[in-house]
Structure formats: C-alpha cells, structure tokens
C-alpha cells in the first residue's frame, strides 16, 4: 500500500515537475507568474486526443501505433509551443514596462480566454483518451506498476536531464541564465533578450504539452478545467523548490506529488486538492524563497 | 504605392497564416482557411486605410485622449443617479429589478475590493472568500439559530471582518504577486472546506430555506422592497467609503500604494494600515454576502469559485482602479451586459478574458480611472 502510493506519487510528481519548470523558467526571466501556463498543459491534453483521433481517422493508428503516438507527441509539442510563443507576444510583451501587477492580471485574462475557448469548441463534458496500454504492467508482491507509469517517469526524467544539459552547456542556455540574472546587462553584452524570452516560453510550453499528453494517457479523461488546478499545483511545486531555481522545480514537483498521494491515502482524500494550497501558503509565509532559493534583497 | 504593398504583403501573409495555424486543431481546416482569408483581407484594408488616412487616425487619437477627461471620474456625479435609482421600481417589472438587485450586491463587492486593490494596491485573487464567509455565516445563523435578518447581519459582518483580519495578519508581510497567490490559496481553501464540511455546511448541497429580511415585523418578500434595502446599503457603502477615502486613513492607503518605502519613511505604519484596508474590505464583502444569501434564500459553494473573484476584480479594473464612480459603472456593465446579450451567453467568459488582456494593454487605468495607479 505504502509503496504503491509512492509509485503513484512519483508519477503524478514528475508531471507536476514538468509543468513547474515552465513556471520557474518564466519567473526567473520575467518575474511574472504566468497564470495561463496551466492552460497550455490543458491544451496539450486536448491536442493529444484531437491529433490521435485524426490519425485514427487516417488509419495510421491501426497500421502502426508507436509511429502514430510519436507523431502525435511531436505535433502536440509543436502546437503548444506555438500557443505559448503567441501568448507571450500578444499578452505579455506589450506589458514589459507596465506596473508589475498588470502582466499578472493579463495572464489571468489569457487563462480564462483559453479555458472558455476550449470549452466552446470541444464541449464542457469530459473527453476520453483512447486506451493505449490499459492497466498492464509489472507486479511485485502487491505493488502494481503500469507500463504507462514507467513511461511517464522515464520520459519526464529524460526530458529534465536534457533540459539541464541544455541550460548548463549550450550557448542559448548560457544566454538564458544571463537574462535571468540581469536583463539590461545581458542586452548590453549583445544578447537579444526578446528572443531569449520567446525561447523560454517555447520550451516551457513544450514541457507543459508533454505533461498534458502524458496525463491524458494516464487518466484517460480530459476536461477543459484541468489546467487551473494543475497550474496552481505546479506553481506550488515551483515555489516549494525556490522559484526561478530549475532543479528546485523538479524536486518540488516530485515532493508535491508524493505529499498529495500519501496525504490522500493516509489523511483525507476529500481535501486532496487543498494540500497544494496549504503548502503554498505555509511555504510563502515561512520561507518565501523555497527550499533551495537564495535570499534576494529588495531593490529600492 | 506598389512598393508599399510589396513591403507590407509578407507580414500580412505571415500573421494570417500563423493565426490560421493556431486555429487549425480546434476548429478544423475549413474554419482555419476562412480565418486566413478574413484576416488577410482585414490586414490589407487596415494597411491601405492607415496609409490613405494617416491624418484621420491622428485626429481620432487626439479625440480619444481628450475624451477620457470628459467622462466624470468624480463620485459627486453619482448624486445624479439617485433619482433614477429611487424610481426604478415604478417603471420596471420584476426581471429588471432582479438584475438591479444583483448589480447592487456586486457594486458593494466591487467597492470593497476597490478599497483593497484600488486604494491600497494589494492584489487579492481570493476576495470571494469574504463574500462566502459573510453569506454562510448569515445562512447558518439564520437557519440553525433562528436569528432574524437584522441580528444575523451585524454578527455575520463581524465574523467576516474578523476572518479578514485573521487571514491577512500573516499574509501581509508578502508583496505583490506572492500576496496575490496567497489570497488565491485562502479563497480556494475556504471553498474546498465549505464543500467538504458536510456536517456543518451541508457540503455541495448548500443551505436552503434562508428567511427573507423583515422590517419592523413586515416581511420584505416583494422584490421592490428588497431592491430598496439593497439600494440603501449601496448608498451607505458609497458614502462611508468616500469619507474614509478622503480621511487620514485613505491618504495613508494611497501613499502605501504609490510607494511603500517612502510612506513608511514618513511614519505610516504599513502593516497596520494594510490591515485596516483588508478588514474594511472584508466588512463590506461580508455585508454583500448577507444580502446575497437573503436574496437567493439558498447558497452553495458553487457561487463562490475563483471565477467569481476574477469577475469582481474585472469590475474594478474595467471601471478604473481607485475610482468609486468607475467601479460602480464597471459592476453595472459586467452584470447588465451578459443579461442584455443572452443569446451569446456562451461567449461571456471568453470575451471577459480577452477584454481583461486588452484593457491591461490599452487602458490599464480602466474606462473611467484618471489617477495614476501605482506606476513603478
């Protein structure tokens, strides 16, 4: 029972971690809580269903399932990255110089817009994701691990390693770190900050798309409102690990997933959705910099 | 002219193609194609028009800028509205009055949130929590203890104000967007608790059978009498909030909004005055909650979601942060507009979301706000 919950928590947590990365990267660079980030995840979940449905209609899934899945995956990531890119250009870029709360309010507007856009075009009822691998998996003693869970944990782990390598090794990654440290200084040494911000949104949205698609495969059900709660939970994970801190977001996501599934099993499952909020409030009140965040002094 | 088109063409094509691409997965190929054609033509028309009528556009810009000054942002103009408001029940039937009562409740809520966000500059994303606490305290005091309207109302308002203080005291050390997120968390925790505490709040089923208010033994069941009750509280709220805004406390709030460090240096105790603002806001939100419970005679957690907080915030932003008259007009617009446009009800929230973004970009001070709301 306990180990079963650990496995479930790890699965959930790696999804939260993927979404949290998008929050933390954007916050690191723009100091903006991208409230609409959860909606990109929701769009990813829907796009997975829509594109896979399209391939089924073409007959590709019957012909070769793995290829259809990989193509769906790529297209979903592509579309979500495009949404993220466009969102930044339309709703946040004009507000770079505005008072700090304006972009946050704008982000809430984007979030409501996207939620209702999907509700109107796709209907308010749950959508079903076609079963890919069902409930099959390994069983040790009384612990059951499905193939889907294994896939989710492995894929998220791989992606996080790749992202870490990208940010610490490549030239673009270095530029991203420079912009996060000081936007003006980075611009002075010849970094195109607008491009770096766009890249950040593209990567963050791509990660959210992966998370969304994996969750719709895992649960098999998708609804237009899933983005809000997943977004808040992932944001909590980002704050837990110290916002702006990339390894912190990964750790925070997994920790939150574990807390949620163990809490649901041993404390109360009715209040499952409240745990994230309680943790968010506690961490902001007690240690706003998160578990790994650095103290930052307020600039006057 | 030819060179002009060749220069502009690729941009128009790219923008239209990109929008069509984003549209594709959710709306299908046909809709995306139509969108492409429509956008492309629209962009062409706009570029040609702006080329031909540059001076005209500039005149429109000048008119737009000056028009803002013509709209009364001063709340004294509100006195003009008193007579129409008083005579409303004589001319209109129940449906309009129903909407008017709802608008009145939202006006009080928006004015309350305006104290916190507009005057003091503390973004609150969980304001609906106070509304919910007011409504539930009223409903529980009424249905469980049998208290009447006039005794349950002050008690509920006191409970809400106290809850506001308890929530705010630890949270006010935070600033800006972190504070906003914590308030959002409080709002959600209140809703989730109301939804799950079955033995006390009856959970998702809600509380029904709340008594309508009475006045010296006469039950105010008729809609028109309830309308006057709400109108009385709206007028009271406007007068009190206006007076407080003009007082020493109100000035301290504005000073804190504009520059907290400078205000503290001038001897304003920031935490104390922020607590005043939050509890003052909670007071009026609690009152609005009582009116809502007494009006509906049934409440459930569904009425107190995050979307409700966003709706109230939109009213404040639409009218203009910090402007009492603007906030009232914002609340009336956002209550009345969806009622007037029943047929496109589905698109209400879609338009609200897009509207909030456009407002932030093009008119962050709101339709009627004139004051420079915290430019940092």
Which descriptors would you attach to this protein?
heterodimer, A: 300 residues, mainly alpha, two-stranded antiparallel sheet, B: 376 residues, ABC transporter involved in vitamin B12 uptake, BtuC, 15 helices, globular
The secondary-structure element order of chain A is HHHHHEEEHHHHEHHH
Biggest interface, and residues per chain? Answer: A-B, 53 and 49 residues
What portion of residues of chain B belong to β-strands? under 5%
Give the helices and strands of chain B as they follow along the chain: HHHHHHHHEEEHHHHEHHH
Sheet bearing the most strands of chain A, described? 2 strands, antiparallel
Cα Rg of chain A: 19 Å
C-alpha geometry of chain B: globular
Number of domains of chain B: 2
Q: What is the multimeric organization of the chains shown?
A: heterodimer
CATH T-level topology of chain A: ABC transporter involved in vitamin B12 uptake, BtuC
What is the number of helical segments of chain A per DSSP (H or I, 4+ residues)? 12
Span between termini of chain A: 53 Å
CATH architecture of the largest domain in chain B: Orthogonal Bundle
Describe the biggest sheet of chain B? 2 strands, antiparallel
> What's the CATH C level of chain A?
Mainly Alpha
What gross morphology of chain A would you assign? globular
Number of strands of chain B: 4
């Amino acid at each position: 029972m306990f180990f079963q919950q650990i496995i479930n928590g790890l699965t959930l947590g790696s999804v939260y971690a993927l979404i949290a990365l998008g929050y933390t990267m954007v916050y690191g660079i723009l100091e903006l809580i991208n409230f609409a980030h959860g909606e990109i995840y929701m769009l990813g979940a829907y796009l997975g269903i829509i594109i896979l449905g399209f391939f089924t209609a073409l007959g590709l899934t019957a012909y070769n399932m793995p290829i259809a899945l990989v193509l769906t995956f790529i297209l979903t990531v592509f579309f979500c990255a495009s949404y993220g890119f466009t969102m930044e250009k339309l709703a946040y870029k004009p507000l770079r110089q505005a008072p700090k709360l304006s972009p946050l309010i704008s982000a809430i507007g984007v979030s409501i817009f996207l939620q209702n856009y999907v509700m109107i075009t796709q209907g308010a009822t749950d959508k079903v994701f076609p079963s890919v691998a069902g409930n099959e998996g390994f069983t040790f003693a009384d612990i059951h691990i499905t193939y889907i869970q294994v896939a989710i944990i492995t894929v998220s782990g791989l992606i996080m390693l790749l992202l870490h390598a990208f940010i610490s090794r490549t030239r673009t990654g270095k530029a991203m770190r420079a912009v996060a440290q000081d936007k003006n200084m980075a611009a002075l040494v010849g970094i195109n900050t607008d491009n770096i911000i766009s890249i950040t949104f593209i990567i963050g949205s791509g990660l959210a798309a992966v998370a969304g698609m994996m969750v719709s495969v895992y649960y098999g059900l998708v609804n237009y409102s899933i983005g809000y709660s997943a977004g808040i939970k992932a944001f909590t994970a980002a704050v837990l690990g110290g916002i702006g801190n990339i390894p912190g977001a990964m750790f925070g996501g997994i920790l939150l997933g574990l807390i949620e599934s163990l809490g649901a099993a041993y404390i109360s499952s009715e209040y499952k959705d409240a745990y994230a909020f309680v943790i968010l409030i506690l961490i902001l009140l007690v240690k706003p910099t998160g578990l790994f965040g650095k103290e930052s002094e307020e600039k006057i | 002219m030819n060179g002009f088109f060749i220069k502009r063409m690729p941009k128009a094509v790219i923008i239209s193609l990109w929008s069509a691409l984003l549209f594709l997965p959710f709306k299908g190929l046909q809709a995306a194609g139509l969108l492409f054609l429509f956008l492309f033509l629209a962009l062409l028309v706009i570029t040609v028009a702006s080329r031909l009528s540059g001076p005209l556009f500039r005149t429109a810009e000048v008119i737009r800028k000056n028009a803002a000054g013509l709209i009364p942002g001063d709340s004294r103009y509100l006195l003009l509205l008193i007579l129409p408001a008083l005579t409303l029940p004589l001319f209109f039937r129940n449906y309009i009055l129903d909407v008017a009562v709802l608008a009145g409740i939202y006006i009080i809520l928006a004015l309350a949130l305006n104290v916190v966000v507009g005057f003091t500059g503390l973004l609150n994303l969980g304001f609906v929590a106070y509304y919910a606490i007011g409504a539930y305290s009223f409903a529980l005091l009424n249905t469980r203890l049998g208290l009447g309207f006039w005794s349950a109302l002050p008690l509920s308002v006191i409970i809400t104000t106290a809850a506001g203080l308890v929530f705010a005291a630890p949270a006010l050390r935070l600033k800006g967007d972190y504070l906003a997120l914590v308030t959002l968390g409080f709002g959600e925790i209140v809703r989730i608790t109301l939804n799950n505490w079955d033995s006390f709040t009856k959970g998702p089923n809600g509380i029904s059978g709340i008594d309508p208010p009475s006045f010296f033994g006469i039950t105010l069941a008729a809609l028109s009498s309830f309308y006057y009750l709400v109108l009385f509280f709206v007028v009271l709220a406007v007068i009190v909030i206006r007076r407080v805004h003009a007082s020493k406390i109100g000035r301290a709030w504005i000073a804190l909004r504009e520059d907290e460090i400078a205000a503290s240096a001038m001897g304003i105790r920031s935490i104390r005055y922020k607590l005043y603002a939050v509890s003052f806001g909670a007071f009026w939100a609690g009152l609005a909650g009582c009116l809502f419970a007494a009006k509906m005679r049934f409440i459930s957690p569904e009425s107190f979601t995050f979307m409700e907080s966003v709706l109230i915030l939109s009213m404040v932003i639409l009218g203009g942060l910090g402007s009492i008259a603007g906030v009232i007009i914002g609340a009336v617009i956002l209550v009345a507009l969806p009622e007037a446009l029943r047929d496109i009800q589905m698109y209400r929230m879609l338009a609200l979301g897009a509207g909030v973004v456009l407002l932030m970009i093009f008119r962050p001070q709101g339709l009627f706000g004139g004051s420079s709301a915290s430019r940092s």
